[in-house]
Amino acid sequence: GDFTNSKILLRIKTRRDFLIYMVGTTVTSIAAGYLFSTVSQGHELDLETLCSLYPKNSRCQNYLPGNVALDRNSKTIDPNALLASTKPGIPVLVKGLPDGSVDYLIIKDGPQIAEYAINPICTHLGCTVEWNLEKNRFICPCHGSQYDSQGRVVRGPAKHSLPLITVVVKQNQVRLVEQKPAIDPR
Ligand code: FES
C-alpha cells in the first residue's frame, strides 16, 4: 500500500542523495589533489593565483595584489591618513583600477577600511550611482534606484545589491582587486 510505496521512495531518494554525495566528494577531492600537487610542485600557479588562494604562503609576503587606490585627485591613498580624516559609514570614492572605474571604500567602526569596496554600477540597467551624503544613500540618476551605505538595494526598480570588489590593505597601501570577495558580508 501507500506505506510500502513511501518506504521505497525514501530508499530511492536516499540512494540518489548518496550517489550525488559520492560524485560530489570525488570531484572535490580530485580538484583539491590537483591543486595541492600543482602548488607543491611550485610551478604552473602564477604568483597572483597562488597568493589569492594562499595569502599566507611565504612567497606572498611582499606580493601586492591588484592596483593601488587613488583619491579623486589621483593621489595615492595613505590608509592612516584616510582613517584619520573620514567617518565610519560614509563611503569614500576611490579609483585606480585599469579600466578607470571608480569604487567606494567602506569605513567600518574602529575605524577600519573594510575588505571590500562598492562598485557603483546600478544593477538595474548599469548607470553609475552616486553617493548622496544628505540622504545617506547611493542614488541612481537614471530611474531612481537607491542603495544604503553598504550597497544594499532599498528602493527599486533595481532588485539586487551593488557589486563588490576586494580591498587589501598591506604595506601601508590600499589595493583594489577586481574580484568579488570570497564571502559577501552583507
Ligand atoms: Fe539605475 Fe535604472 S539604471 S535605476
Structure in words:
By secondary structure, the protein is of the alpha+beta class. The mean pLDDT is 84. Strand 2 and strand 3 (102-108) form a beta hairpin. It has a six-stranded antiparallel β-sheet with strand order 1-10-9-4-3-2, with no helix packed on it. Strands 5-6-7-8 form a four-stranded antiparallel β-sheet, with no helix packed on it. It has three helices and ten strands; from the N terminus they run ααβαβββββββββ. The chain has helices at residues 2-41, 47-53, 79-85, and strands at residues 67-68, 92-95, 102-108, 112-118, 130-132, 137-139, 146-147, 153-155, 164-170, 173-177. Bound molecules: FE2/S2 (inorganic) cluster (FES). The site of FE2/S2 (inorganic) cluster has 12 residues, from loops.
**Backbone shape:** globular
Measured between the Cα atoms of the first and last residue, the distance is 49 Å
Secondary structure tally, helices: 3
Kindly provide the radius of gyration, computed on alpha-carbon positions and rounded to a whole number of angstroms.
Answer: 23 Å
Largest sheet: 6 strands, antiparallel
Instruction: Please give the share of residues in helix.
Output: 25-40%
Mean pLDDT: 84
The set of bound ligands, ions and cofactors reads: FE2/S2 (inorganic) cluster
Indicate the low-confidence ranges by residue numbers.
none
Structural class: alpha+beta
The SSE string, one letter per element, is HHEHEEEEEEEEE
Give a count of the beta strands, DSSP E runs of length 2 or more.
Answer: 10
Strand content: 15-25%
Strand order of the largest sheet: 1-10-9-4-3-2
